[in-house]
């Protein structure tokens, strides 16, 4: 967990290469956020994924670029100290295969796939996961392909830290943000985890989604 004041700053190409949320050398800048509202369910969405969805799931949100997102949490009630396994839903609404960039090690998803908890009055209480600038080597497995009409499910931990939520009660706001500006991954950069290597031949990643979107929902905190 981190306080509001601890925000990651990427200051060098080497750090960008080993921080999964940032594009490698020559990559694009982070695109502007997409803020479209909920969209209707896709009748062609992956049947198994939709069949296993619990009742505590948000509406689909249009992320742009033929991608829709929604956030699923386990059933409440929720208490300070709980550690929840959230399920992130990525649906390909297009007619061609799509690739996502989301690293397998969830501890390394800061500024890529992260959560923000806020009080009812809008005060930010926590952002997670903590940033880890090195310790993970990105491979092509971190760019899963999603077939047209299918849904990719990814799990990510949400900590309701008692140190952050002490004294809080009632309805909190939870925001999940997903962003990607990486469209090509070239090797040859020296990092603390060793030299980077070309992924997908160092060429533009086929079908890669890029953009930024958020899903917001309430999180009732029991006393």
What features would you highlight for this structure?
four-stranded antiparallel beta sheet
Say what the CATH topology is: Immunoglobulin-like
Strand order of the largest sheet: 1-2-3-8
- Shape-level CATH architecture: Sandwich
User: What is the SS-derived class?
Assistant: mainly beta
Supply the CATH class: Mainly Beta
- Low-pLDDT segments, ≥5 res: 1-48
The radius of gyration is 18 Å
Helical stretch tally: 3
Shape call: globular
Total strand segments = 12
How much strand content do the residues show?
25-35%
Overview of this protein structure:
The chain has 223 residues and is mainly β. It has a single domain, classed as Immunoglobulin-like (Sandwich). It contains 3 helices and 12 strands; from the N terminus they run H-H-E-E-E-E-E-E-E-E-H-E-E-E-E. It has helices at residues 13-18, 47-51, 162-165; strands at residues 61-64, 67-72, 83-92, 98-99, 113-118, 124-128, 145-146, 151-159, 170-180, 190-191, 194-195, 211-221. A 4-stranded antiparallel sheet has the order 1-2-3-8, with no helix packed on it. The longest helix has 6 residues, at 13-18. It is globular and about 55 Å long. The model is unreliable at 1-48 (pLDDT under 50).
């Amino acid at each position: 967990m981190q306080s509001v004041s601890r925000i990651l700053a990427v200051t060098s190409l080497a750090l960008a290469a080993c921080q999964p949320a940032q594009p490698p050398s020559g990559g694009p800048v982070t695109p502007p956020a997409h803020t479209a509202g909920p969209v209707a369910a896709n009748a062609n969405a992956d049947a198994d994924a939709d069949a296993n969805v619990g009742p505590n799931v948000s509406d689909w949100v249009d992320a742009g670029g033929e991608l829709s997102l929604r956030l699923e949490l386990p059933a409440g009630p929720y208490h300070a100290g709980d550690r929840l396994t959230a399920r992130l839903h990525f649906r390909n609404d297009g007619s061609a295969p799509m690739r996502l960039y989301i690293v397998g090690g969830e501890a390394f998803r800061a500024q890529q796939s992260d959560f923000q908890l806020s009080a009812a009055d809008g005060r930010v209480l926590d952002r997670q996961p903590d940033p880890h600038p090195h310790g993970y080597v990105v491979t092509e497995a971190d760019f899963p392909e999603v077939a047209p009409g299918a849904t990719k499910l990814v799990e990510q931990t949400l900590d309701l830290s008692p140190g952050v939520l002490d004294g809080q009660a009632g309805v909190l706001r939870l925001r999940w943000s997903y962003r990607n500006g990486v469209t090509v991954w070239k090797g040859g950069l020296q990092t603390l985890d060793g030299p980077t290597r070309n992924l997908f031949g160092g060429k533009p990643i086929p079908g890669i989604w890029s953009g930024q979107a958020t899903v917001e929902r309430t999180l009732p905190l029991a006393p």
